[in-house]
Specification:
about 425 residues, alpha+beta, Cytochrome Bc1 Complex, Chain A, domain 1, 2 domains, 7-stranded mixed beta sheet, 15 helices
Length: about 425
């Protein structure tokens, strides 16, 4: 079954796997990949880090290829093969000249569905992942977000580190991968996403024989359980370094919450990527307390997380925190003026439009969007939603989510 939309087309294969494709005529580079509705939140207690380990092991051998042949396949034609794991998804994707599209599609199908997890490769990759864990632990501006997740989602799999624990990673066997995949893989929750200068029918023709031998599979997992809302906590740790790092956060609207886009706009005003964000102006431009400060919002299928991060001299932490609270109070109490609201909308629309200039980014938006919502919101649709946001909506959201006592706080205090 195929469905056409103004900006993309969708086809469902016999086994339930869906293809979403957008033809672009201005580039000879193709971007394609598989997106699976499986992530670290789907792990059991003794499986912490298994989804991420699977992502690594997909490159380490299939029924017809050894690791070298996988890694060399696209590199020899100037292409890139990559993968990543999040709390809710695993993705295997590639970018290369469109003349090698079929080659990339075949390789991606092979590593996604036909990995054999050779025991010797498991042992080698185990050490690689342990080194990756050590690297992240030694990077406070990254590790602090893992700790924030752990505090906000304590006792829930969303709070678990995607890399897992050293104890669990050391214990994974070949059978553990097989059990995890068997329990979680659902072909109706797998999407192949494609952005290339090919007509839709040609992409279907390439994929049809590649996916024909993959049987329809239904997930055996019990389903995802939304995390409970917990009271704010405080966590502090002394770590080597000259700066104190601070991360504040709390649960936020989910992907399917109607407030998602207005909340995203609110956070963009507060601490988005623009140099004119309120936090950047207050902490960096006016007071010179930080090199960088930002606010972020990540929605999940049943909740979300909002965070603020900054790093500064130990003697300036309290002042920086007070400035953050001051900006939050302004958003709660002072309505945006007509010009401010207009500028905030124009800025967000411009940022979204520029993000679609990246065909690789667009390919990933298509895959994730189809998994999450079953459809893709076009830029005109998003723009109409943004234009409809009111000052009252933003102020109400600020009062609901940005209260002074709403945040879990993690601090990595400098030891020097």
């Amino acid at each position: 079954m195929s469905i056409a939309a103004p900006d993309y087309q969708i086809h469902t294969f016999a086994n339930g796997i869906r293809l979403i494709h957008k033809q672009v005529t201005h580039s000879r580079i193709a971007h394609l990949g598989f997106f699976l509705d499986i992530g670290s939140r789907d792990e059991m207690t003794d499986e912490g880090g298994l989804a991420h380990f699977w992502e690594h092991m997909a490159f380490k051998g299939t029924q017809k290829r050894k690791s070298f042949h996988i890694l060399n396949r696209l590199e020899t034609v100037g292409g890139e093969l990559n993968a990543y794991t999040t709390k809710e998804k695993i993705a295997f994707h590639a970018s290369l000249l469109d003349s090698h599209y079929k080659m990339a599609a075949e390789l991606l199908t092979d590593i996604t569905f036909h990995s054999i997890f050779p025991p010797k490769e498991i042992e080698k990759e185990r050490q690689v992942i342990l080194e990756e864990m050590a690297m992240y632990h030694d990077t406070p501006d990254e590790a602090i977000f893992d700790e924030l997740d752990a505090q906000i989602f304590a006792g829930h799999t969303l709070g678990a580190n995607i890399l897992g624990l050293e104890s669990t990673v050391r214990g994974f066997t070949r059978q553990a991968f097989a059990n995890f995949i068997d329990r979680n893989l659902d072909t109706e929750r797998v999407v192949f996403t494609s952005v290339a200068n090919f007509p839709f029918k040609k992409v279907i023709k390439v994929l049809e024989p590649l996916l024909a031998d993959i049987p329809q599979k239904t997930s055996n997992r019990l389903g995802r359980i939304a995390p409970a809302l917990k009271s704010p906590t405080a966590f502090a740790q002394v770590r080597p370094g000259k700066q104190t790092h601070a991360a504040w956060g709390r649960q936020a609207p989910s992907l399917h919450n109607p407030a998602r886009l207005p909340f995203f706009m609110l956070i963009n005003i507060l601490g988005g990527p623009g140099a004119n964000s309120r936090l950047n102006l207050a902490l960096r431009e006016r007071h010179g307390l930080v090199y960088g400060v930002d606010a972020g919002y990540t929605p999940f299928t049943d909740t979300g997380i909002f965070s603020i991060y900054f790093a500064t001299d130990p003697g300036q932490v309290e002042k920086a925190g007070q400035l953050v609270l001051k900006e939050l109070k302004k958003l709660r109490e002072v309505p945006l003026g007509t010009l401010q609201l207009h500028q905030a909308k124009e800025q967000l629309m411009g940022q979204l439009a520029m993000s679609e200039e990246s065909n690789n980014g667009l390919m990933q938006v298509l895959g994730k969007g189809l998994l999450d919502s079953g459809r893709i919101e076009s830029l005109p649709e998003l723009f109409e939603q943004i234009k409809a946001v009111s000052t009252t909506q933003l102020r109400n959201l600020a009062n609901e989510f940005l209260g002074p006592d709403a945040f879990t706080k993690v601090t990595y205090a400098a030891s020097e």
